[in-house]
Amino acid sequence: MQMTRRSFCAGLAALPLSRPAIAQGFPTLTAQEATVQLAPDGYPATRVWSYEGTIPGPVLRAPQGGRLERRLVNRLPVPTSIHWHGIRIDNAMDGVPGLTQDPVPPEGTFDYAFDLPDAGTYWYHAHTNSMEQVARGLSGALVVEEKTPPAVDRDEVLMIHDWLLDPETGQFVDSFQNAMTLSHAGRIGNLQGVNGRYDVTLEARQNERLRLRLINGANARIFALRLEGLTGWTLALDGMPLEAAEPITETLVLAPAQRIDLFVDVTAAQGENAGLLFAPGDDSWQVLAEINVTGQASRASRGTPAPLPRNPGTEVPDVAGVRVLDMPLQGGAMRGIERGRFRGQEMDWQGLIENGQFWTLAGQAGRGDAPFASLSLGETARIRMANDTVFPHAMHLHGMHFRTVAPDGGFGPLRDTVLVMPGDTVEIAFVADNPGKWLLHCHMLGHAASGMTSWIEVT
Ligand code: C2O
Ligand code: CU
What we know:
Structural class: mainly beta
Keywords: Metal-binding, Oxidoreductase, Signal
CATH topology of the largest domain: Immunoglobulin-like
Protein name: Copper oxidase
Helix content: under 10%
Number of strands: 34
Distance between the termini: 55 Å
Organism: Marinibacterium profundimaris
Radius of gyration: 21 Å
Low-confidence stretches: 10-22
CATH architecture of the largest domain: Sandwich
GO molecular function: copper ion binding; oxidoreductase activity
Shape: globular
InterPro entries: Cu-oxidase-like_N (IPR011707), Cu-oxidase_2nd (IPR001117), Cu-oxidase_C (IPR011706), Cu-oxidase_fam (IPR045087), Cu_oxidase_Cu_BS (IPR002355), Cupredoxin (IPR008972)
Number of helices: 5
Bound molecules: CU-O-CU linkage, copper (II) ion
Number of domains: 3
CATH class of the largest domain: Mainly Beta
CATH superfamily of the largest domain: Cupredoxins -  blue copper proteins
Oligomer: single chain
């Protein structure tokens, strides 16, 4: 296969242009401006919003059953907060301004401290004006390590980004409020990168087994991914182990905020192509991350890996007799709005659009004062999401993982973010075992900002 580097400018033409002293305490995680070379060499560096001056922020690693403690120090010119995506977390630490905490003002701090019940691949990102703050760089990986580390030769985080940069200036295109973007697919970038770099290259030897932790940190892009010179298995989705390692036979689809843990064996010999490819949408496959095969490990291939140990309290829920709550996904451009009725009632789209809202969840644009559902602790919930728009949506529940329920009653794997394609209906079920106020929203962050944000309460 011809391995071509993706081009940076492709597609841009179509896009609209437009200190206080710190008290003793936790290790800090400072949100700050920085200058980083996101674009290929030769292009200008980019002024970003970062954690600790790097893109992505530092990989935070902690053992399962341990605690994570970080003091967010806000050196940005805007208020911010951190959401620890996928962690079954203490609600007060969930990072949602106006729901679980006040936003942290410039020069302010907030102490995050919480237990880590589940091993797996998670991530953290800004959750105040996240549409803009994540697009400017505020995210990083959070790895919770299994008690007994699985047998791999290397453990690599690959955090995938989709930046929207002006190639002339190298700066982020400042179109965050663009109605066209918000009401269509969201902020789709023109430069895909991994771990903050355009040309990330990892090293490995033939026959080595790598654990690749893929995280889609993009604002809106759904990544179609393929391996080259590698063969392997999917071990976990959204942090949660699968019952058995699943051989990778086809394209992997990673919606915004989703993660996949892969175990891959390097089959390529020294000098042969190896890496992670993605489809930009024009039938080509381009290199997203390259693996430079530097030699040969003596070890022969080890066969199918054992599954990762199951996380606690993740049994399949009993949904028999549980009422199904309907959450239609409505609105958006290309006739979605015209079509959007809720329970037979016309929606006042004109009024919503004047307020910058283009989408609704269960007939409601934005979070509102009342929860979509009030659940009692321990109750099983079923939510049916019918996508009555012409765009895909990556629906994310905070605080708890769920399973999809197929029409025949079968359950999907545990996830915290599920892709709902246009015209499709996806039912999720979960046990409401984490008390608090939890968002349920689209992780295409422009959609979340323009109506697709709801919440549930567990008491
Ligand atoms: Cu990763 Cu409410 O989001
Ligand atoms: Cu959406």
